[in-house]
Design a protein that fits this description.
The chain has 137 residues and is mainly alpha-helical. It has helices spanning 3-27, 121-134; strands at 91-92, 95-96. The protein folds into 2 domains: 1-36; 67-137, no CATH class. Helices cover 28% and strands 3% of the residues. It starts with a helix and ends with a helix.
Length: 137
């Protein structure tokens, strides 16, 4: 399975979850503000983006690569004083108290949507603006 197929499956699972949550809320007499992504949103891989088999990082001026996979967080390799007593990152909208260290995709980082692949873009945009203003501005 390639990245596009994995992202499509994740989007489908997300839509199924949102539908089930909304149905449960309605049956329980509650309201839900969760909205499934519509077809106009660009989810998963964009059509027309060419996949690469290799990339020269130096020529592409890429200095860092972060590869994150799995079903739970493990920050054991991060040796910075930025975690609470439960091992969760201390952050506000992804910004830690350590300059240059940010988090993205955490469950309930800012909203329920923060940990969902289809909606992480709002938090990514916030962090990009924050870094532009505070780190590089």
């Amino acid at each position: 399975m390639d990245a596009a197929e994995i992202l499509d499956e994740a989007d489908k699972a997300n839509a199924t979850f949102i539908s089930a949550a909304n149905e449960w809320a309605a049956q329980s007499g509650l309201s839900s503000s969760l909205e499934a992504a519509n077809d106009d949103q660009n989810l998963g891989m964009s059509p027309g983006i060419n996949e690469l088999d290799e990339l020269d990082l130096r020529n592409a001026k890429i200095g860092s690569v972060v590869w994150a996979t799995g079903h739970r967080f493990d920050f054991g390799w991060v040796r910075l004083p930025i975690f609470d007593t439960y091992g969760a990152p201390i952050q506000k909208r992804g910004v830690s108290n350590c300059k240059g260290v940010y988090f993205l995709g955490l469950h309930w980082m800012h909203t329920f949507k923060s940990g969902l692949l289809s909606f992480v873009g709002d938090d990514a945009a916030y962090l990009a603006d924050y870094m532009d203003s505070n780190e590089f501005g």
